[in-house]
């Protein structure tokens, strides 16, 4: 995935005759939006022949009657980061407008119902076989390339993020806020109107291409509703893991614990499989590498499995899968302890 009363582009309109019977209503709704019926209001319209970009654009629009909600804690991180970016910007922009500019794409990209975007969001549109375990040891051995509220993708803005960093709403906000605000200011200083500059600032996000982010931007300027129950990591858990003879920070990502909009956790919520619970680590050195590690007890495979992605590599064509060498979650004493 990586970035409204207007009808969602590409979505067939749902009209229900007032006098229809309950049975007829159910049949019409299921026929037109089967994914939505299975996975909730945020479930995408899916077309087997559509590209991932087509699907993002078609599912980007937040209904005008829906409030724009955001987790209270992540929103504070965004406001803080946007405020600093506004203060240091090369053009005039208020903290309120900077906050709206930085959050505008999070709903079209990860929560088109207007519900609080989940920091744990895992992309569901890409279904290339290269993203799955080539040995097919379990269905949940799947590497989602887009991560978090901003859907930071390994092919673009997320190329030097691990999944843990992209999920971390504080870290992601501190990286995204100055990036987006500075991009906006560069275009303003080049003579663009504010609206033209916003379009350029959002150009990395496919869901913004047809105006969905301008819509959420204007609505966000009028107020974002902060909601409780969405933590810094959106339900993922920071842990300490023993891996390759060293204790390392790691993040345990279990989609069933997602906080905020969770349409993507359902089988009908996208085209790709949903990853089984996994750990994320960053290996440093001269060639930083992201490691996603699945314990056999979590994935159902006969052995532990890991996938490695060197920074700068697109996960769609650069993953290295192998049998896991063993990992111990020292925080909960799980795994090879």
Q: In terms of per-residue confidence, which ranges show pLDDT below 50 for 5 or more consecutive residues?
A: 1-39
Largest sheet: 8 strands, antiparallel
Total strands: the figure is: 12
Mean pLDDT: 88
Proportion in helices? 25-40%
Major β-sheet strand ordering:
10-9-8-7-6-5-11-12
Counted up, domains total 1
Number of helices: 12
How big is the Rg? Answer: 20 Å
Distance between the termini: 36 Å
Basic shape? globular
Question: Strand share of the residues?
Answer: 15-25%
Helix vs. strand class: alpha+beta
SSE string, helices as H and strands as E: HHHEHHHEEHHHHEEEEEHEHEEE
Can you tell me about this structure?
The N terminus is likely disordered. Helix 5 crosses helix 8. The chain has one domain. The chain is globular and about 55 Å long. It has 337 residues and is of the alpha+beta class. The chain is built from twelve helices and twelve strands. The strands form three sheets. Strands 10-9-8-7-6-5-11-12 form an eight-stranded antiparallel β-sheet. A two-stranded parallel sheet has the order 1-4. The longest helix is centred in the middle third of the chain and has 20 residues.
């Amino acid at each position: 995935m990586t970035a409204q009363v207007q009808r969602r582009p590409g979505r067939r309109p749902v009209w229900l005759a007032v006098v229809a019977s309950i049975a007829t209503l159910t049949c019409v709704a299921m026929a037109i939006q089967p994914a939505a019926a299975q996975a909730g209001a945020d479930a995408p319209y899916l077309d087997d022949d559509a590209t991932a970009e087509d699907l993002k654009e078609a599912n980007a629009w937040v209904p005008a009657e829906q409030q724009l909600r955001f987790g209270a804690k992540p929103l504070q991180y965004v406001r803080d980061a946007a405020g600093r970016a506004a203060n240091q910007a090369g053009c005039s922009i208020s903290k309120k407008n900077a906050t709206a500019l930085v959050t505008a794409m999070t709903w079209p990209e990860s929560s088109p119902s207007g519900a609080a975007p989940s920091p744990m969001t895992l992309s569901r549109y890409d279904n290339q076989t290269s993203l799955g375990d080539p040995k097919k040891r379990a269905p949940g051995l799947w590497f989602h390339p887009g991560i978090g509220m901003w859907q930071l993708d390994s092919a673009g803005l997320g190329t030097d993020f691990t999944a843990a960093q992209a999920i971390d709403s504080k870290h992601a906000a501190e990286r995204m806020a100055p990036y987006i605000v500075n991009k906006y200011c560069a275009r303003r200083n080049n003579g663009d109107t504010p609206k033209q500059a916003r379009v350029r600032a959002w150009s990395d996000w496919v869901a913004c291409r047809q105006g969905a982010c301008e819509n959420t931007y204007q609505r966000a300027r009028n107020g974002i509703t902060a909601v409780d129950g969405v933590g810094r990591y959106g339900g993922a858990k920071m842990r300490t893991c023993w891996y390759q003879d060293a204790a390392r920070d790691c993040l345990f990502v279990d989609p069933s614990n997602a906080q905020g909009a969770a349409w993507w956790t359902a089988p009908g919520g996208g085209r790709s499989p949903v990853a089984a619970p996994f750990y994320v680590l960053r290996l440093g050195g001269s060639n930083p590498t992201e490691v996603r590690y699945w314990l056999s007890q979590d994935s159902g495979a006969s052995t532990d499995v890991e996938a490695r992605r060197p920074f700068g590599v697109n996960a769609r064509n650069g993953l290295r899968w192998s049998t896991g060498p063993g990992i111990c979650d020292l925080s909960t004493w799980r795994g090879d302890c």
